[in-house]
Amino acid sequence: MERTERLEAYAAAVQEALERFLPAADDSRARIRDAMRYSLLSPGKRIRPVLVLEFCRVAGGRPEDAMPFACALEMIHCYSLIHDDLPCMDNDTLRRGKPTNHVVYGEDFAVLAGDGLLTHAFSTALSSALPPERTLAAVRTLADAAGVDGMLGGQSVDVQNDGRLASFDALAEMYAMKTGALLRAGARLGCIAAGAGEDALAAADRYASAVGLAFQIRDDLLDLEQDEAIGKTTYPALLGVPASRARIDELTKEAACAARFFADPDFLVWLAFYLAGRDV
Question: In Å, what is the CA distance from 164 to each residue of 48, 209, 221?
Fold first, then answer.
C-alpha cells in the first residue's frame, strides 16, 4: 500500500469508528450529542489516531485492536480545539473552513461539548477488548497526556503568559506539553496496545517528541508568514527563520532514526517528513 493511501485508509477507518463510538440520538440529549459530533466528525487527517494505529502495527499488534485508544485520543484532541476556539481563549470563528462549535451551538453548549468529549474518551478507551493491564496503562497514558502535566498544562502556561515566554527553555517546555503530549500519547498507546516492551516505548517517545516539536516550529513559521505571530514568543522570533528551518530538518531526521528501531518503519519515516512539510 502506498504511504498516502495508508494515511487515507487509517483516517477513513478512524472516521467510521468515531461514528460508531458516538452515534447520533433523538432523545433529550440530542443537542449535546449533535454538538459533540459536529466537531468530532469534521474531516481531518487524524494524525494522532494514525500514530496509535501505525505504532500498534509496527510493534507487532493488530491496528484494529488499538482503535478504541485511537478514537479516545482524537476525542481528547477535539475537546481541546473546541475550548481553544472559545471567546475566552482564542476567539476563533472558523476551523477548517467551518464555523467553530460555539458559533453554531453557543458558548454554553460548546463548553459542554468539549467536556462531553473528554469524558466520553475514557469510556471509549475502556471499551477495549485487550487485556486489562494494557487498557489500564492506556487510560493512564491518556489522563497524563491530557492533564496538568500534559496538554492542559501547556495551554495554561501559554494563557498565563499571553503567548510571551521569557526564555527558549520555557518555550520548548510549553510546546512539549501543549503540542507534544498528545502526539507522544499516540505513539505510546499503539505500543501499549501491541504489548510492546520498554525499548519500543522509548523509541516511540523519541519519535513523537521530535515530530511534535518539528510540527510546532513549522506552525510557527506558517504563522509568521500570515502575520499571526506578532508579539508572541516563537522559534523564529528567538532563533530566526533559517535556524528554525534547520531545526525542523534535524528533528525530522531524529524522528526517522527513532522509527528505525521497528522492523517496518517506512511509513513512520515518511510521516515525519510529511508533517514537517518536507519530501523524504
Answer: 27, 22, 16
